Amino acid sequence: MVLGLGLFLTACVSSPSQGDPDDGPAQDTVGNFVPDRDDSLRETLGDSPAECVASAGAEVRDVDPEDSPVKPWQKPTGGELVVEFETGRLSERYTRLVTEAATIWSESPCIEAVTARSCTGGANCVAIVEDGSRSRGTDGEMRWDDNGAYMESATITLYTQPLDRASDNGALATIVHEMGHTLGLDHRLERSDVMNSVTGDNTNPVPDAIDFANLVAIYGT
């Protein structure tokens, strides 16, 4: 992909860890703790802005100052930002996880994340591809093109060597993380958050209220 004015962003560093059997019944098949996503989402939404309306002087919070800032999309006036995630080149597992991740991000009042086998003409399009080669220590990366002010297109690469060994929870966390970058979010300092630079099988794939508030700060009117 030709990057033009765009930048290269290395996103997720895989750090799987084993859960403790005392964590309760929410375990996957290899013993990793799996957060209850429905409960997490209800908690996040309960603490998040209900509308895409930013207060005067609103700024993103808890971002990693050493991160390379990603560009936002240009949001239409008075409407949600619609971003299409292209799944036509993905296997069944990753298509399913991308669809789940899009549903999670669409809970933001600013965002409608939709999946499509191929993007429609003129759409805000994010291509997603699998790569079975060596991944330089990361399980996902995102590249984008911009026009200087706004993102124009993006590509997420899922490195299947580490992701195929990850639980569905861990792989979903990687995909939610990379999709968050394509929506304009930078890395978070909060170590437990899905937008932190390190995720693993125990990472809660549901963004927290600050992630959703940051989207309002970026796109709110």
Automatic annotation (TrEMBL):
Annotated ranges, domain Peptidase M10 metallopeptidase: 136-219
Residue spans of biased composition, Basic and acidic residues class: 35-45
Disordered: annotated span: 14-76
GO cellular component, one term: extracellular matrix
Alphabetic keyword roster: Hydrolase, Metal-binding, Protease, Zinc
Domain of life: Bacteria
GO molecular-function terms, A-Z: metalloendopeptidase activity; zinc ion binding
InterPro entries reported for this sequence: MetalloPept_cat_dom_sf, Pept_M10_metallopeptidase
Gene Ontology process terms (BP): proteolysis
The protein's name in its UniProt record: Matrixin
Organism: Crystallibacter crystallopoietes
